[in-house]
Amino acid sequence: MRLRNIILFVAICSFTAYYVYEPIPETIEERWKLMLTNSFFRTLSHLADLCESVGLKDYMDVMYVITVIEGIVPVSDEFVKVTEEKFDGVEVVVYQPKQKGVDTDMRRAVIYLHGGGWCLGSSRMSPYDLLARKIVTELDAVVLSVEYRLAPSHHFPVPYEDVYRVVKHFLQKGVLAQYSVDPERIAVSGDSAGGNLAAAVSQQLQKEPGQQIKLRAQALLYPVLQALDLKTPSYQQNQDMPILPRTLMVRFWSEYFTSNKALFRAMMANAHNSPESSRLLKFVNWSAFLPEVYHKEYNYSAPAVAQGLGDDGNGMDGPSELFADPRASPLLVPDADLNSLPKAYILTCEYDVLRDDGIMYATRLQAAGVEVTHQHYDSGFHGALMFTVWPTDFLIARRMTDNYIKWLKENL
Length: 412
Ligand SMILES: *[C@@H]1O[C@H](CO)[C@@H](O)[C@H](O)[C@H]1NC(C)=O
Ligand SMILES: *[C@@H]1O[C@H](CO)[C@@H](O)[C@H](O)[C@H]1NC(C)=O
Hints:
single chain; about 400 residues; alpha/beta; eight-stranded mixed sheet; 17 helices; about 40% helix; about 15% strand
């Protein structure tokens, strides 16, 4: 009897260790904590796959649990007044300082866009709520946290357009005056898919005829910036890294455009480009835009070009036009569209499939003459900045937050 219990105990321990253990690089701090955190994400993802394969629920519906677990109701506190409003029909959580400003009565503002692959996430999650409050108190700024609608219920361009509507609405003299915001000191910022939306909005706003009030800065935290080449060196190096493995990122990309699984399969094989989109591959040529250290161990070959991805009878409606749209892939624009962009802060992490998207954008913006601060974290992993809440709080999240806020303080 006792022996049986011991055997059972050992079996459970070794199963747990086997399941939780992952070969995470030694340079990443708090490795065991990250393994445990990620084993939750992996389990959820397996469950989501299972539910989808037996037809119970869609993958993303199950993954949405992450958003629910961290969900909160944003309320005012001693220092910050929180209101839920609608800007041109789009939900926004507005955070304002309670104290009157000390040296000026005009405030800075940050329009913040949460991450989650356009499919998950919410302004009403504790890490985003905490970050917004920190920006408010440290910068004496107003923060708008935009609750844009999500895929797959709302495919591209809906999430983008929601954000654009909010930005357009906010950047009006009358509206800014209501919130005592200085029209010269407004930034747009976001992490991951939110960084994608922030970069896209910054580009499109400068083309808007008659737009008088402009953005001062864009702060992009491990942003997603292009859908053409999903086998950059960072996609290859980090395909099984915690939090955002390549499969999940490819899934987010394909779900952003369509619920047709043919696009997911083509993107997994990096064979989704059409003759039209392939003309834009020059803008994501990592052999040209990455410093040598990042690509020297990889041999560049341009992604395969398929004829008629949509011809499998599933009625895919020109997805290549969609993923080559700069509002979805802001890296795909010529230099002439980059040179008058607001100054940029770009955060990248070594252990992140999206590392090269961020580095290439930093390279291209700099070459176009835009002022860029690029902070690369050698021990960083995707999503790190959001791990600020116990029990999944990481030291690196604190450093990232401090550096990001310092940049905003000095540049906005
Ligand atoms: C990518 O860049 C390399 C080096 O700059 C160049 O030799 C190659 O032709 C480029 N390929 C594409 C598809 O732009
Ligand atoms: C790249 O090409 C070189 C020379 O052809 C080869 O020796 C090397 O193994 C290749 N590297 C990869 C990662 O394919």
